[in-house]
Amino acid sequence: MRLIPALVAFGLLLPLAAQAEDVTTWNFGDPNAVGQWVVQELVTQQAEEGLYVRADTDGFLQVPARFVQPFHVVTLTVTSPATTKASLLWNTKGTTQFAELPFAIPVGQYQTIDIVTSEHREQNPHPVAIGIFLEQGTELMIHDVAVRGWSLSERIGYAAKSFWKVDEYRPYSINFLWGPLIAQNPVSLQYLYEKLPPPSPSATRIFYVILGIALLSVLATWVLRKMQSVDARALGIFFALAAGLWLLFDLRMSVEVLSYVRDDVKAYVLPEPGKRMLRTHLDLYDMLFRILPTLQQENRYALLYPPEGQHYSMYRYFTYPSLPITQEKDLTGITNWVVVDRPDLKVNAEGRIAGSDGVPLSPPGRITLQLNKYGYLFTVNP
Amino acid sequence: MTLLALPAGLLLPTLCGWLLLRLLEGKHAVLYRTERWVTGCVLGLTSTMFVSFVLQVTLNVPFSFIGFGTAQLGLAILLGALWYAKRSTLGPSPLPAHSILSRWQAIGLGTLLTLLVAKIVLAGATFLILTPTYLQDTLKNWNLRGKVFYETEMLTLVMPNEDPLVSPRDISSYPPTVPMIKTWLADIAGTWDEALVNSIHIVWYLAALLLLFYAVRRYASLPWALLGTYILGSLPLYLMHGTNAYADAFVSVHILLAISFVLHAMRAHGAMQRMAWFRLAALATCLIPLTKNEGILVHLPPLLLVTALLLLGLRRFGQISSKQLFTAVGWYALLGLLPAFWLGFKWVRGLTFGNGKPFTSLGFGWQENVLYAVTINTFAEGNWLLLFPFFFGLLVWRFKTALGELLPLTAFVLIVYFGQMALYLFTGLSTEALMQTGYARGLVQLAPTIVLLTTLLLHDAWPTIGRSFGALRMRKAD
To answer: Given B147, B234, B241, which is nearest A317 (Cβ)?
Structure first.
């Protein structure tokens, strides 16, 4: 009799194993592959390494799609002389409208761009055509386009891996923790917490489905017993599942908090001063603590930092009672100048800190301590 | 070695707190011994800082080692003298009902709590002691103000490099208790040390765990008290607040004390014990406005409302006499002078009463997407594990208990929670929910109280749950 459940299980599991990653690739160096694509309003030129495309006006490339399996990621390999924007297009069955999914094209050669189509609710896994929309002024070389899909068993495997993949300690971690997420392909898994808010769904959905089914079972017994009592075993299963899921969730989140500890110890506590990195602030603290005694020798110092940076409150707190001065009009008479994350500021031939427009900001002096590539302590000549 | 200033700095405030509690309890002691020391530490710190604040703004007593030390020593001597004079009339502390763990309870809860302690030690040591201050609110508020107080030795309202007219209306409008405690610790050490001034935050977190343990223990056996402690300790976002230099765990432990004392007052067996609980509740309640601005607007009114309704209810059902009712009100009025002084100071110095913009400037109207953001934060992130579905589920399932013997807790939690929700749903404060900034902090402040309520409701439901587990075991045996 035990053979029957085993056969049922085998039958249920068979489709999981039957499929594997499904990839359809168009190599744009191959004229036959390019020939499948319809080009609208774009200037193109076939080359051995790919298809050169120039958009004098807005235009697109489009290919009829006959994907047997659902696809989850579209991967483009391109070479672009400039950062630009584009959109992935696909039209859904029965409509003539194209859905658009914007993405950025980075500058550089053979850049790989992964677009996770399955993260978008409007996505149709069986499109009849896909395409690439390019804005006017875009110029790039498309090397290849690949459409990738994964089988159910593979997706479950990635989901299991993503459950245990944790976020980093970030400034928002004091307000909320994303918690476990469910990614169903390697691209989503790789970038799980990098795009905010994370596009992958929360694993708590699975918890609620499990608990919901268990609770419905309890309620079903209640209804079957004419609302007089519930089945104790069904209730027991519900509470056992609730306790088990709590412990599992606790374990998962403990792993996350302890990973923050591990990262801090490895990157900040154990390294020597000068090599310390702290969370999203990287080497900011390390730089600050190296120059702190110098800054505190005077009651004020100049602080030149990027406008979007969090440097000011940090410097103000740690160097107090010595204070950072940031307004250009107040910078006269200051001996110590701290330059952080400002690649636009250089020391010119006269020994003054000057901006990219050449306008000097400081009196003549010299860099007394190079902190990192774009950070240094500059001391004004006596 | 600098960290030794932490226990040294806790010594006198804890002693003052202990004496104050012992005197308020009077002839009928109601707190367990350890519970009194822990409560004394929490309320003693806040009380002694308030005394130093009053001395600073009235007599210009500096925020120095001598200034703080004199205030604390003076208070300890005064309270000590009163205690000495009354010591023969003060009754013995009660003991928790005898309870032991079964073998499997010891193994299960022992494992969970050992892992919990390891997690707290590692996270606390790393985030508070081994790494520098990282979070913006700490850099711009709690620690900066403490450091400014330390350097200037006075209640400076203008933060460095800030407009003297605008600055006081910003973070200086927050109660100065947390920054002052940091200043006191730095005064003992003789230097502003990051690890030292941040280490105080773990004290409040551990206090919340211990006080929750004793609050549950009052109504349930040892395994339940340990389970409640585990539940609170397992909440990831509360752990983050407990092991980082933020002030919301500090607020949360004051709220837990105030509302749980009201609950204990309702459920006390004797009239004298009930009055002792009300006196303790009056102290804890009146210290809440000295923790954070939310204390004044969000927590104090519901606390006073719940307490007032309880007192009237007890009087109506003949559980207390009119004299006792007026005595309780008198204690609240007397101890209400503490927050009244702080509010008066705010008013005189033109400080704000809320955390940001006045409510009148926030506009009124339905705020899109707030419900979605709140649902995500409460149910679909890693902040609270599965606490809230279980909490709301238990509230519905055990509604008779929730609205009966646990009514003060239920009423307070629901008023505060839905009061905050109304602000997010209908005013410009919605950004706090949409950006997931203020909403979760509100829950952090309520977390120990919600866990107390959840644990007691779970305890109430245990006969049914236990039977269902029993049925499962029987099935397995079949």
So the answer is: B147
List of E strands, B307-378: none
Find residue A221's DSSP bridge partners: none
CB A256 within 8 A of CB B236: yes
Which residues of chain B make contact with A175, given a CB cutoff of 8 A?
436-437, 440-441
Backbone torsions φ then ψ of B6, nearest 5 degrees? -65, -60
**Which of A189, A118, A182 lies closest to A147 in space, CA to CA?**
A118
Q: Which residues of A touch B376 (CB under 8 A)?
A: 202
Q: Which residue of A has its CA nearest to B151?
A: A321
Nearest CB neighbour to B161, from listed A254, A310, A316: A316
Contact B386 A257 (CB under 8 A): no
Kindly determine whether residue A175 and residue B386, on different chains, have CB atoms separated by under 8 Å: no
Give, for A103, the enclosing helix (H) or strand (E): strand A98-105
CB atoms within 10 A of CB A108: 12
Q: CA-CA distance, B384 to B380, in Å (whole number)?
A: 9
Split chain A (382 residues) into runs of 10 and give each run's mean pLDDT: 51 50 87 88 90 92 78 92 90 72 92 87 69 92 92 93 96 96 94 91 96 95 89 92 97 98 97 93 94 95 88 94 89 92 91 90 94 92 88
Q: What is the C-alpha to C-alpha distance for residues B122 and A262, in angstroms, rounded to an integer?
A: 9
Task: Provide, as residue numbers in chain A, all residues whose Cβ is less than 8 Å from the Cβ of B139.
Answer: 313-314, 316-317
CA distance A130 to B430: 40
B438-459, pLDDT tens digit by residue? 899 999 999 999 999 999 999 9
Rounded to two decimals, the pTM is: 0.92
Question: Are A239 and B127 an interchain contact pair (Cβ–Cβ within 8 Å)?
Answer: no
Residue % of chain B over a pLDDT of 90? 85
Q: How far apart are CA A184 and CA A195, in angstroms?
A: 16
Residue in chain B closest to A201 (alpha carbons) equals: B380
Across the interface, whether the CB atoms of A252 and B136 are under 8 A apart is answered no
Residue B97's contacts (CB-CB under 8 Å, 6 or more residues apart) are B221
Q: What are the tens digits of pLDDT across the range A62-83?
A: 888 777 677 889 999 999 999 9
* Closest residue of chain B to A315, computed from CA coordinates: B139
